[in-house]
Q: What sequence folds into this?
C-alpha cells in the first residue's frame, strides 16, 4: 500500500507537492552529508594544528573516490529502476537493485585492497609533504577498510528514492552521518586520537549507514531486492546501469582527481596554502551539497515520467525545480558570503592559513549560485537516460575544461589562478548542460510523437 501511494505521488500529485516530497528528504540527507564532511575538518581544527587540517584536505579527495564508485551504482541504478517502475517492469527493477548491491561489495573489497597495497605511491601523488605524510597515511589506511560499506551507503541513499521512499533513503545517511558527527569530538578530542579518531568515526558511520539499508531490504520494506538470487548481468542490467552511472561517477571521480592536482600544485606554496584551499572548498560545499540534494531528489520523479511517457508533467516538474534551484543557489551563496570570516575561523586559527582560505573562498563563491540549476539540468538528463550527454558534461566540468584551466591560469595568475579555474569551469559546464538538456528533451519528444503517429496508422 505504501509503495502504491509513493507511485501515486510520482504520477498524480501536484507538481510542487511531488517535488518537495521527494527533494526535501534528499536535501536533508545531503545536509547531513555536508555536516559529516565538515565535522572532520572542524574537530581536527580544534586541535589548533594546521598540519592535521592540511592532511585531512589531502586525504579527502582520495577517499571520495570510493564515493564516486558508489555513485556508479547509485545514480545508474536509480535512473534504470525509476524508468522500469514507470513502465511497470517490477521484476527487472528488482534485478537491477540486486546487481547494484553485490557489485558494491565486490568493487569495495577490491578498491580497499588496492588502496592499502599502493598507499605510499598514492601519498606521493597527492603531494603529501614530510610534515603531513604520516598523518595522511594514518587517515587513509583506516578509512580504506570501510570501502564496501561506503559504496553501499552511497548507492542505496539514491536507489531507494527510485521507489518513492525518500524518507527511508534519508534515514540511512542521517544515522551514519549523525553517528560520525557524535563520535568525532569523542575520538579526536576526548580520547586524544586526533586524525586517527576522525578516520575511525568515519568508518563506524559508514558501517552503520550501510547496515541500515541492508536491514531495510531484509525486513521486507521494499518492492525491490538485494537477494543474490535476483543478481544478474544479463538483459542489459549491467550495461544500462553503467551507461548512466559511469558518466555520473566520472564527475565525482574527476572532482577527486582535480582536487588532488590542486593540492599537489598548491603544495608548492606551502602546507598553509593546502590547508586554506581545503577549507575554501568546504565553504563552497555548503552551497553545492544542498543543491545536489535537490537534483538527486527530483531525478526518480523525472525518470518515472520518462518511463510512463508523461512528458507534460516532466516539463512542469523541471520548470518548477529549475526556478527553485536558482533561488536556492543565490540564497546559499549570499549566506556564505555574509558569514565567510566566521565560517573559516571555525576551521583555522593560523593567520596565514586563514587569510588563504578567505581569499580562495571569495573566488570560488563567485559562481556557486549556479550549482542548483546545474544539478537540476544534469539529473534531468540522467533521468532521460541520455548516457552520451551525461558523459560529455561529466568530462567537461571537472576534466576537459577544469584541469587544463588549472595549469593555464596558474601560469598566468600564479597561486590564485589555481582557484579561478573552478569558476571558469562552472560557467562553461552550466551553459553546456542547458544546451544538452534542450537537445535531449527535444529528441525524446520527437521520438514519442513519431511512435504515436505510427500507432495511429
A:
Amino acid at each position: 500500500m505504501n509503495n502504491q501511494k509513493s507511485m501515486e505521488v510520482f504520477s498524480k500529485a501536484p507538481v510542487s507537492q511531488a517535488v518537495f516530497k521527494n527533494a526535501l528528504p534528499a536535501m536533508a540527507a545531503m545536509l547531513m552529508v555536508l555536516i559529516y564532511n565538515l565535522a572532520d575538518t572542524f574537530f581536527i581544527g580544534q586541535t589548533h594544528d594546521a598540519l592535521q587540517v592540511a592532511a585531512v584536505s589531502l586525504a579527502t579527495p582520495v577517499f571520495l573516490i570510493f564515493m564516486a564508485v558508489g555513485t556508479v551504482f547509485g545514480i545508474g541504478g536509480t535512473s534504470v529502476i525509476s524508468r522500469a517502475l514507470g513502465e511497470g517492469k517490477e521484476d527487472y527493477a528488482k534485478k537491477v537493485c540486486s546487481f547494484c548491491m553485490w557489485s558494491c561489495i565486490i568493487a569495495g573489497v577490491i578498491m580497499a585492497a588496492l588502496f592499502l597495497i599502493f598507499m605510499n605511491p598514492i601519498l606521493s601523488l597527492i603531494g603529501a609533504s614530510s610534515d603531513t605524510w604520516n598523518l595522511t597515511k594514518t587517515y587513509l589506511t583506516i578509512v580504506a577498510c570501510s570501502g564496501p560499506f561506503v559504496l553501499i551507503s552511497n548507492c542505496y541513499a539514491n536507489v531507494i528514492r527510485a521507489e518513492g521512499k525518500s524518507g527511508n533513503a534519508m534515514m540511512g545517511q542521517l544515522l551514519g552521518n549523525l553517528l560520525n558527527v557524535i563520535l568525532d569530538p569523542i575520538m579526536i578530542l576526548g580520547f586524544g586520537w586526533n586524525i586517527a579518531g576522525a578516520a575511525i568515526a568515519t568508518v563506524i558511520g559508514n558501517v552503520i549507514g550501510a547496515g541500515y539499508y541492508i536491514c531495510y531490504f531484509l525486513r521486507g520494506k521494499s518492492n525491490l531486492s538485494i537477494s543474490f538470487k535476483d543478481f544478474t548481468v544479463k538483459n542489459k542490467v549491467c550495461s544500462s546501469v553503467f551507461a548512466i552511472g559511469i558518466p555520473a561517477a566520472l564527475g565525482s571521480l574527476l572532482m577527486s582527481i582535480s582536487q588532488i592536482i590542486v593540492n599537489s600544485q598548491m603544495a608548492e606554496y606551502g602546507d598553509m596554502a593546502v590547508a586554506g584551499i581545503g577549507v575554501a572548498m568546504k565553504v563552497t560545499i555548503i552551497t553545492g551539497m544542498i543543491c545536489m540534494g535537490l537534483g538527486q531528489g527530483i531525478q526518480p520523479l523525472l525518470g518515472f515520467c520518462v518511463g510512463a511517457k508523461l512528458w507534460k508533467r516532466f516539463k512542469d516538474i523541471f520548470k518548477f525545480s529549475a526556478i527553485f534551484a536558482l533561488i536556492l543557489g543565490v540564497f546559499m551563496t549570499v549566506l556564505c558570503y555574509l558569514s565567510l570570516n566566521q565560517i573559516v575561523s571555525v576551521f583555522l586559527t593560523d593567520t596565514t592559513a586563514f587569510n588563504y582560505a578567505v581569499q580562495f573562498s571569495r573566488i570560488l563563491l563567485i559562481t556557486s549560485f549556479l550549482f542548483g540549476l546545474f544539478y537540476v539540468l544534469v539529473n534531468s538528463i540522467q533521468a532521460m537516460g541520455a548516457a552520451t550527454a551525461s558523459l560529455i558534461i561529466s568530462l567537461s566540468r571537472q576534466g576537459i575544461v577544469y584541469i587544463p584551466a588549472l595549469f593555464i591560469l596558474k601560469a598566468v595568475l600564479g597561486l590564485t589562478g589555481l582557484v579561478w579555474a573552478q569558476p571558469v569551469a562552472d560557467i562553461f559546464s552550466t551553459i553546456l548542460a542547458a544546451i544538452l538538456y534542450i537537445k535531449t528533451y527535444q529528441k525524446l519528444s520527437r521520438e514519442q510523437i513519431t511512435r504515436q503517429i505510427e500507432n495511429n496508422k
